[in-house]
Specification:
By secondary structure, this protein is mainly alpha-helical. About 55% of the residues lie in helices and about 10% in strands. It has two domains: about 35-95, Winged helix-like DNA-binding domain superfamily/Winged helix DNA-binding domain (Arc Repressor Mutant, subunit A, Orthogonal Bundle); about 100-160, no CATH class. The chain has a three-stranded antiparallel β-sheet with strand order 3-5-4. A hairpin with a 4-residue loop joins strand 4 and strand 5 (about 90-95). GO terms for molecular function: DNA-binding transcription factor activity, RNA polymerase II-specific; RNA polymerase II cis-regulatory region sequence-specific DNA binding. InterPro entries: E2F, E2F-DP_heterodim, E2F_WHTH_DNA-bd_dom, WH-like_DNA-bd_sf, WH_DNA-bd_sf. Keywords: Coiled coil, DNA-binding, Nucleus, Transcription, Transcription regulation. Belongs to the E2F/DP family.
């Protein structure tokens, strides 16, 4: 007996289509309609724009977006992570990697952060050395004949109580 495999494809909650493995799709796939792919196309368009400035209406037309809400979702996220800034209601500007002044500013910030990391690593090394020195001294105190015989007295002396 031969069986034919039938897949249930649910592109939206409103409409259900049955599709066999032999059928060719006439509508775009989920990947082609995905927000991730639209975001990549939008960022490419934005980076190619003169001075990184883009009109959102032009972008929506250029990307053939039926719902402008998707463009606004993308811009809100990109603005939230600091890659773009809104110049006015429908105009945005790229502040990411391809913006010349931003790149110099980011490079300076990276340089400062690397210097801070080096300084913190040096401080960490010094603290590790001090910790090792203290551990060795505590070990010597515990095994020294006088301090091991009178530990309570040593405790009082070390705390300034005698």
């Amino acid at each position: 007996m031969g069986y034919k495999v039938v897949w249930l494809v649910v592109p939206s909650r409103k409409k259900m289509d049955f599709e066999t493995t032999e059928t060719v799709r006439s509508t775009p796939s989920r990947h082609e309609k995905s927000l991730g792919l639209l975001t990549m196309k939008f960022v490419s368009l934005l980076q190619e724009a003169k001075d990184g400035v883009l009109d959102l209406k032009v972008a929506a037309d250029s990307l053939a977006v039926k719902q402008k809400r998707r463009i606004y979702d993308i811009t809100n996220v990109l603005e939230g992570v600091g890659l773009i800034e809104k110049k006015n209601k429908n105009i945005i500007q790229w502040r990411g990697e391809n913006s010349g002044s931003q790149t110099q500013e980011v490079l300076e910030h990276v340089k400062v952060l690397k210097a801070q990391i080096s300084e913190l690593e040096a401080q960490e090394k010094e603290l590790d050395n001090q910790k090792t020195w203290l551990e060795e001294n505590i070990k010597h105190l515990n095994y020294h004949p006088i301090t091991s015989t009178y530990p309570f007295l040593c405790y009082l002396i070390s705390n300034g109580n005698v």
